Amino acid sequence: MRIDIITIFPGFFDTVLACSIVGRARRAGIVQIQCHDLRDYTTDAHRTVDDTPYGGGAGMVMKPEPFYRAVREVLGDEKAPVILLTPQGELFTQAKAMQLAAQERLVLLCGHYEGVDERVRQTVVTDEISIGDYVLTGGEPAAVVVIDAIVRLLPGATGNEQSPMDESFSTGLLEYPHYTRPSEFQGLKVPEVLLTGNHKQICRWRRRQALKRTLQRRPDLLGQAELTKEDHELLREIWQEMQDDRRGE
Ligand code: ADE
Protein backbone atom coordinates (compact mmCIF):
# COMPACT_ATOMS: atom_id res chain seq x y z
CA MET A 1 0.00 0.00 0.00
CA ARG A 2 1.11 3.55 -0.62
CA ILE A 3 -0.08 6.56 1.40
CA ASP A 4 0.70 10.17 0.43
CA ILE A 5 0.17 12.91 2.99
CA ILE A 6 -0.20 16.52 1.87
CA THR A 7 0.51 18.89 4.76
CA ILE A 8 2.06 22.21 5.72
CA PHE A 9 3.94 20.39 8.54
CA PRO A 10 5.74 17.41 6.96
CA GLY A 11 8.10 17.27 9.96
CA PHE A 12 5.14 16.49 12.21
CA PHE A 13 5.13 12.90 10.94
CA ASP A 14 8.87 12.16 11.20
CA THR A 15 8.96 10.31 14.52
CA VAL A 16 5.37 9.24 14.90
CA LEU A 17 5.34 7.25 11.65
CA ALA A 18 8.83 5.81 12.28
CA CYS A 19 7.84 4.07 15.54
CA SER A 20 6.15 0.85 16.54
CA ILE A 21 4.07 -1.24 14.13
CA VAL A 22 3.76 1.51 11.49
CA GLY A 23 7.55 2.11 11.49
CA ARG A 24 8.21 -1.63 11.18
CA ALA A 25 5.64 -2.04 8.41
CA ARG A 26 7.34 0.77 6.48
CA ARG A 27 10.78 -0.78 6.90
CA ALA A 28 9.38 -4.16 5.82
CA GLY A 29 7.94 -2.60 2.66
CA ILE A 30 4.35 -3.41 3.65
CA VAL A 31 3.40 0.26 3.38
CA GLN A 32 5.10 3.18 1.72
CA ILE A 33 4.28 6.55 3.31
CA GLN A 34 5.37 9.80 1.71
CA CYS A 35 4.86 13.35 3.06
CA HIS A 36 4.57 16.29 0.68
CA ASP A 37 4.95 19.92 1.77
CA LEU A 38 1.91 21.81 0.52
CA ARG A 39 4.09 24.93 0.17
CA ASP A 40 6.09 23.15 -2.57
CA TYR A 41 2.93 23.44 -4.71
CA THR A 42 2.58 27.22 -4.39
CA THR A 43 3.78 29.58 -7.12
CA ASP A 44 4.44 32.85 -5.25
CA ALA A 45 7.67 33.92 -3.55
CA HIS A 46 6.08 33.74 -0.09
CA ARG A 47 4.79 30.19 -0.65
CA THR A 48 1.33 31.30 0.45
CA VAL A 49 -1.17 28.58 1.36
CA ASP A 50 -3.93 30.67 2.97
CA ASP A 51 -5.89 33.88 2.51
CA THR A 52 -8.69 35.87 4.15
CA PRO A 53 -12.27 34.58 3.69
CA TYR A 54 -14.54 36.09 1.05
CA GLY A 55 -17.50 37.63 2.87
CA GLY A 56 -15.35 38.56 5.85
CA GLY A 57 -15.08 36.96 9.26
CA ALA A 58 -12.36 35.65 11.52
CA GLY A 59 -9.40 33.46 10.55
CA MET A 60 -7.87 32.32 7.32
CA VAL A 61 -8.93 29.85 4.65
CA MET A 62 -6.59 27.45 2.84
CA LYS A 63 -6.29 28.32 -0.84
CA PRO A 64 -7.52 25.79 -3.42
CA GLU A 65 -4.67 25.87 -5.97
CA PRO A 66 -1.84 24.32 -3.87
CA PHE A 67 -4.03 21.35 -2.81
CA TYR A 68 -5.26 20.90 -6.37
CA ARG A 69 -1.75 20.98 -7.82
CA ALA A 70 -0.35 18.71 -5.12
CA VAL A 71 -3.00 16.01 -5.65
CA ARG A 72 -2.62 16.18 -9.45
CA GLU A 73 1.18 15.85 -9.24
CA VAL A 74 1.24 13.18 -6.55
CA LEU A 75 -1.33 10.97 -8.28
CA GLY A 76 -0.38 11.57 -11.91
CA ASP A 77 -2.61 9.31 -14.00
CA GLU A 78 -3.45 7.05 -11.07
CA LYS A 79 -6.76 7.01 -9.24
CA ALA A 80 -7.04 6.71 -5.46
CA PRO A 81 -9.29 7.91 -2.65
CA VAL A 82 -8.34 11.48 -1.72
CA ILE A 83 -9.32 11.99 1.90
CA LEU A 84 -9.70 15.36 3.57
CA LEU A 85 -9.32 15.22 7.36
CA THR A 86 -11.94 17.55 8.78
CA PRO A 87 -14.32 17.69 11.74
CA GLN A 88 -17.11 17.88 9.13
CA GLY A 89 -16.24 14.44 7.73
CA GLU A 90 -17.75 10.99 8.18
CA LEU A 91 -16.94 9.64 11.66
CA PHE A 92 -13.95 7.25 11.43
CA THR A 93 -14.77 3.68 12.49
CA GLN A 94 -13.15 0.26 12.38
CA ALA A 95 -15.36 -0.55 9.39
CA LYS A 96 -13.96 2.48 7.53
CA ALA A 97 -10.39 1.48 8.51
CA MET A 98 -11.01 -2.00 7.03
CA GLN A 99 -12.46 -0.52 3.86
CA LEU A 100 -9.45 1.81 3.41
CA ALA A 101 -6.96 -0.96 4.25
CA ALA A 102 -8.17 -2.77 1.12
CA GLN A 103 -7.05 0.11 -1.14
CA GLU A 104 -3.72 0.13 -2.95
CA ARG A 105 -3.22 3.87 -2.59
CA LEU A 106 -4.55 6.70 -0.45
CA VAL A 107 -3.94 10.45 -0.43
CA LEU A 108 -4.56 12.32 2.83
CA LEU A 109 -5.07 16.09 2.90
CA CYS A 110 -4.49 17.91 6.17
CA GLY A 111 -6.54 21.08 6.60
CA HIS A 112 -5.78 24.03 8.89
CA TYR A 113 -7.07 27.40 10.04
CA GLU A 114 -10.79 27.94 9.58
CA GLY A 115 -10.86 25.28 6.88
CA VAL A 116 -10.09 24.73 3.22
CA ASP A 117 -11.66 26.50 0.26
CA GLU A 118 -14.84 24.60 -0.66
CA ARG A 119 -13.55 24.03 -4.20
CA VAL A 120 -10.87 21.64 -2.89
CA ARG A 121 -13.78 19.36 -1.92
CA GLN A 122 -15.44 19.90 -5.26
CA THR A 123 -12.39 19.15 -7.41
CA VAL A 124 -10.08 16.58 -5.77
CA VAL A 125 -11.55 15.23 -2.52
CA THR A 126 -13.39 11.90 -2.68
CA ASP A 127 -13.90 11.26 1.08
CA GLU A 128 -13.97 13.38 4.22
CA ILE A 129 -13.10 11.85 7.58
CA SER A 130 -13.46 13.13 11.14
CA ILE A 131 -11.82 11.19 13.97
CA GLY A 132 -14.31 12.48 16.55
CA ASP A 133 -16.55 15.29 17.60
CA TYR A 134 -13.86 17.71 18.73
CA VAL A 135 -11.74 20.25 16.91
CA LEU A 136 -7.99 19.68 16.49
CA THR A 137 -5.46 22.36 15.50
CA GLY A 138 -5.16 20.69 12.10
CA GLY A 139 -5.68 17.47 10.17
CA GLU A 140 -2.20 16.05 10.97
CA PRO A 141 -3.02 14.26 14.27
CA ALA A 142 -6.16 12.88 12.61
CA ALA A 143 -4.11 11.61 9.65
CA VAL A 144 -1.82 9.77 12.08
CA VAL A 145 -4.83 8.13 13.75
CA VAL A 146 -6.26 7.03 10.40
CA ILE A 147 -2.89 5.70 9.14
CA ASP A 148 -2.25 3.82 12.39
CA ALA A 149 -5.66 2.12 12.29
CA ILE A 150 -5.20 1.15 8.63
CA VAL A 151 -1.58 -0.03 8.68
CA ARG A 152 -2.08 -2.45 11.57
CA LEU A 153 -4.71 -4.23 9.45
CA LEU A 154 -2.34 -4.84 6.53
CA PRO A 155 -1.23 -8.47 6.14
CA GLY A 156 2.07 -9.02 7.96
CA ALA A 157 2.00 -5.71 9.85
CA THR A 158 1.35 -7.01 13.37
CA GLY A 159 2.98 -10.42 13.03
CA ASN A 160 -0.25 -11.80 14.47
CA GLU A 161 -2.92 -12.21 11.84
CA GLN A 162 -5.47 -13.47 14.36
CA SER A 163 -5.50 -10.54 16.76
CA PRO A 164 -6.79 -7.66 14.63
CA MET A 165 -9.88 -9.73 13.82
CA ASP A 166 -10.51 -10.73 17.44
CA GLU A 167 -10.37 -7.36 19.03
CA SER A 168 -12.86 -4.69 20.01
CA PHE A 169 -15.07 -3.45 17.19
CA SER A 170 -14.03 -6.11 14.65
CA THR A 171 -16.41 -8.52 16.33
CA GLY A 172 -18.80 -5.69 17.06
CA LEU A 173 -18.16 -6.14 20.80
CA LEU A 174 -15.69 -4.69 23.28
CA GLU A 175 -12.92 -7.07 24.27
CA TYR A 176 -12.99 -9.34 27.31
CA PRO A 177 -10.55 -8.52 30.16
CA HIS A 178 -6.96 -9.75 29.73
CA TYR A 179 -4.62 -11.15 32.39
CA THR A 180 -0.98 -12.22 32.52
CA ARG A 181 1.40 -13.26 35.32
CA PRO A 182 1.42 -12.95 38.31
CA SER A 183 -1.69 -14.98 39.14
CA GLU A 184 -2.27 -12.71 42.15
CA PHE A 185 -1.52 -8.98 42.26
CA GLN A 186 -2.42 -6.57 45.08
CA GLY A 187 -4.79 -9.23 46.42
CA LEU A 188 -6.52 -9.53 43.03
CA LYS A 189 -6.63 -13.05 41.60
CA VAL A 190 -6.83 -14.03 37.94
CA PRO A 191 -10.26 -15.62 37.31
CA GLU A 192 -10.02 -19.34 38.05
CA VAL A 193 -11.34 -20.48 34.66
CA LEU A 194 -8.32 -18.97 32.84
CA LEU A 195 -5.99 -21.27 34.79
CA THR A 196 -7.90 -24.48 33.96
CA GLY A 197 -6.61 -25.01 30.41
CA ASN A 198 -10.21 -25.88 29.42
CA HIS A 199 -10.42 -24.03 26.11
CA LYS A 200 -14.14 -24.47 25.66
CA GLN A 201 -14.90 -23.00 29.08
CA ILE A 202 -12.33 -20.21 28.57
CA CYS A 203 -13.92 -19.33 25.24
CA ARG A 204 -17.38 -19.20 26.79
CA TRP A 205 -16.14 -17.07 29.73
CA ARG A 206 -14.46 -14.61 27.34
CA ARG A 207 -17.55 -14.31 25.18
CA ARG A 208 -19.67 -13.69 28.28
CA GLN A 209 -17.24 -11.01 29.53
CA ALA A 210 -17.18 -9.33 26.12
CA LEU A 211 -20.97 -9.24 26.08
CA LYS A 212 -21.07 -7.91 29.66
CA ARG A 213 -18.51 -5.15 28.98
CA THR A 214 -20.36 -4.10 25.85
CA LEU A 215 -23.73 -4.08 27.63
CA GLN A 216 -22.29 -2.02 30.51
CA ARG A 217 -20.13 0.42 28.55
CA ARG A 218 -21.37 0.59 24.95
CA PRO A 219 -24.88 -0.88 24.70
CA ASP A 220 -25.26 1.05 21.42
CA LEU A 221 -22.85 -1.46 19.79
CA LEU A 222 -25.05 -4.47 20.56
CA GLY A 223 -27.61 -3.50 17.93
CA GLN A 224 -25.08 -4.05 15.15
CA ALA A 225 -23.03 -6.93 16.55
CA GLU A 226 -23.44 -10.42 15.11
CA LEU A 227 -25.01 -12.33 17.98
CA THR A 228 -25.88 -16.01 18.21
CA LYS A 229 -28.85 -17.52 20.04
CA GLU A 230 -26.44 -18.42 22.87
CA ASP A 231 -25.21 -14.81 23.02
CA HIS A 232 -28.79 -13.62 23.47
CA GLU A 233 -29.28 -16.10 26.29
CA LEU A 234 -26.04 -14.95 27.93
CA LEU A 235 -27.13 -11.32 27.57
CA ARG A 236 -30.44 -12.07 29.28
CA GLU A 237 -28.53 -13.76 32.12
CA ILE A 238 -26.10 -10.81 32.43
CA TRP A 239 -28.94 -8.30 32.34
CA GLN A 240 -30.72 -10.19 35.14
CA GLU A 241 -27.47 -10.26 37.17
CA MET A 242 -27.05 -6.50 36.72
CA GLN A 243 -30.63 -5.90 37.92
CA ASP A 244 -30.06 -8.13 40.94
CA ASP A 245 -26.80 -6.31 41.76
CA ARG A 246 -28.62 -2.99 41.55
CA ARG A 247 -31.37 -4.17 43.89
CA GLY A 248 -28.73 -5.45 46.33
CA GLU A 249 -26.93 -2.06 46.48
N1 ADE B 1 -9.22 18.54 11.86
C1 ADE B 1 -9.59 19.24 12.95
N2 ADE B 1 -10.35 18.50 13.78
C2 ADE B 1 -10.47 17.27 13.20
C3 ADE B 1 -11.14 16.07 13.55
N3 ADE B 1 -11.85 15.97 14.67
N4 ADE B 1 -11.06 15.03 12.70
C4 ADE B 1 -10.36 15.13 11.56
N5 ADE B 1 -9.71 16.23 11.17
C5 ADE B 1 -9.76 17.30 11.98
Query: Unreliable segments (pLDDT under 50, ≥5 consecutive)?
Result: none
Number of strands: 9
Measured as a percent range, the helix fraction is 25-40%
Instruction: Calculate the mean pLDDT score and round it.
Output: 95
Strand content bin: 15-25%
Secondary-structure content class: alpha/beta
* Oligomer category: single chain
Strand order of the largest sheet: 2-1-6-5-7
Largest sheet: 5 strands, parallel
CATH fold-level name of the largest domain: Alpha/beta knot
Number of DSSP helical runs: 9
CATH architecture of the largest domain: 3-Layer(aba) Sandwich
Order of helices and strands: EHEEEHEHEHEHHEEHHH
- What is the level 1 CATH name of the largest domain? Alpha Beta
Ions, cofactors, ligands: which are bound?
adenine
The CATH superfamily of the largest domain is known as: SPOUT methyltransferase, trefoil knot domain
Radius of gyration: 23 Å
Give the total of domains. 2
Taking the alpha carbons of the first and last residues, their distance comes to 54 Å
Shape: elongated
